Description:
The complex is a heterodimer of chains A (about 260) and B (about 450).
Chain A: H1 8-18, E1 51-52, H2 69-82, H3 97-106, H4 108-111, H5 136-154, H6 165-177, H7 187-203, H8 215-220
Chain B: H1 2-19, H2 45-49, H3 60-72, H4 75-78, E1 92-95, E2 98-101, H5 118-127, H6 142-145, H7 150-160, H8 184-192, H9 206-216, H10 222-225, E3 243-245, E4 248-250, H11 266-275, H12 285-293, H13 300-311, H14 326-344, H15 362-365, H16 370-378, E5 380-381, E6 393-394, H17 403-415, H18 426-435, E7 442-443
Antiparallel strand pairs in B: 1-2, 3-4, 5-6
Helix pairs in contact in B: 1-8, 3-7, 5-7, 9-13, 11-13, 14-17, 16-18, 17-18
Amino acid sequence: MSDNGINRRRLLVAGALTGAAGAAGAVTLHDGERGADPRTYSGTMPWRGGAADAPPIAEGGTGYTFFNALEQAFLEPALDRLIPPDPAGPSATQANVHIFIDRQLAGPYGRGDHYFLGGPWPKGVAEQGYQSRLSPAQVYRLTIPAIEGHVRGAYNGKLFKDLAVEDQDKVLKSLESGDAKLDSADGKMFFTMFLQNAMEGYFSDPIYGGNKDMGAWKMIGFPGAHYDYREWVGRHNERVPYPPVSIKGRPGWSET
Amino acid sequence: MARMNRIAAVVGLATIGLAGAGVASLALSQGRINASSTAPGVATPTQLLTQPIPDGAPNIDQIRQGQYLVKMGDCVSCHTRDGGEPLAGGYGLNTPFGVIYTENLTSDPDTGIGAWTPDQFYQAIHSGIGPHGMRLYPGLPYTYFTRATRTDSDAMLAYLKTVPAVSYRPPANGLPFPLNIRFMIRGWNLLFFRPGDFKPEPAKSAEWNRGAYIVTGLGHCGACHTPKNALAGDKTGVPLHGGDLDNWVAPDLTSNMRTGLGRWSSDDIVEYLKTGRNAHANAGGSMGEVVSYSTSLMNDADLHAIATYLKDQPASPSAAAYDPDPGAMKRGAAIYSDACASCHLQEGGGQPRIFPPLKDDAVAQQGDPNGLLHLILAGGRTAPTPTRPTPLSMPSFAWKLTDQQIADVATYIRNAWGNRASAVTAGQATKMRARLGLKTVHLTDNSGDHG
């Protein structure tokens, strides 16, 4: 994206200044989403039988495809400190959040396809969103070894997984606050992304690899991929009886 | 009679030997899985058919009448190839015997019908014989058009001669020997073709007779809606009892309360033909083209005449009572609740004229479930019409549901809320999925995040 010679921000500025943005038809502006380029249709709306906006289904079972052994050893205990097991619901790893993050980092999200990663890289404000030149996969790959280096220095050569949970929490809190000083990595930015990804994996549709058996949805009573409740608009103080359903269904679709 | 049987045997052997056994019908391939698109700069079929005929020509009334009759005959649906000029032909009709390409009907003298005489045109639609004496393949529904009057035939030709010439020669037909010998059609015609004028029923009203003239003539409704025999001839004993065509089902048009028009009033029929929607159904698939390019452009009097005639058709026999498998019904109910009820509602009531109700729906309850399977697998699109121009569409569920799940939800829809029809098997869903080419996921242009 940064190597195609077009600096998007400058292009937008130039377009705004010259009023030529609308005429820049020859230049394809990428909006960050991987989809079709803008097109003009006339006559009837296009429609193709059998075609669908089908989501990508996470594949590969429960083995890792992105994380290496060192990363896995940090990832799983760290996730279970963010979302520990309790009587209300599954822990992060019980819900396969680690598999969700693994598949995400191996795909378009990990490559940063959704982000503009070209320069310049001045320090932005929070409202400006993601401001790193690193893709999410690069953030994980660079930061986890730096965290382990920090842990080794602070805890007599131990790995994060071998710390007492209280110490694990201290490490995570110091990442969150920015107090932990890492070699050549931004611990605070990593923690923000990591916590975000953990929540996404815990609550997103199981087709993406996490939220195993819709455990998180059952915990909070979320019915899943139902998108219409017109029949319930006038019915108050009743429980909606629908069991949670994934984009790809639920056990009731196939049970004999 | 003996002579007739011999011809039947000859044609039959040729058919079965070459096209394979189990040929069910001359199901014309009018069901294009893609909504037809027109290249930039080319008039759409609707634009051509609704173009005002300017004053000036001495036979102006005849030309205007001809334009109307070309709409009534829905010539444009078959005589337009995808992306091609309307009426320039070249659309491939998938018959069980091979592909038949439609002729160029524009006024081009070399490749179109610009040089045809009124006698030649009448001979083609009345007798199925081309301008040089060769027999036309019954892809042209001359078995119906034969009832059109000479006056109407002349008017159609007069109009077609005003359609801007397009020089385009359709590809050669892809029929195997000996079906490529047009002489063979003679045998078929002897069996299934009764040339003759429309015979009014004096006991019926003028409106009824006008409806009969349209339905059994230029409207050629039975070409799809009448079941076919093994040699693709109409089963004339069961007119309009429903047929299959190109992976769709042309529903029963008799007064049957489940599979036919028994629950539709005359006004319902008129509304459907005019707007593409009514309280019971939306027009899509092949019928969507018929509505877009033909019935929605016809006048109200003729639509009422069609309705009067159809409402007078005796009901087809009802299907036997049937007890669906409780397991399939339970799974089907679960799938329906999660995947279908958002639009069609839990009790199948739908949102009339937007999302068709499935309770009491005729397509759902046809003996042949292929129309329902086609809709679930490929989705569908309601035909846009002048009165209701927004083309609503139903999404494809091919990527989301397994063949067993499709079969179960289809069985449920066919037997829930008082509906009644035979169960659907996973094998039927598998077969339809293969016929529609949907074994792999087809993404829309806008699907993101793959790879």
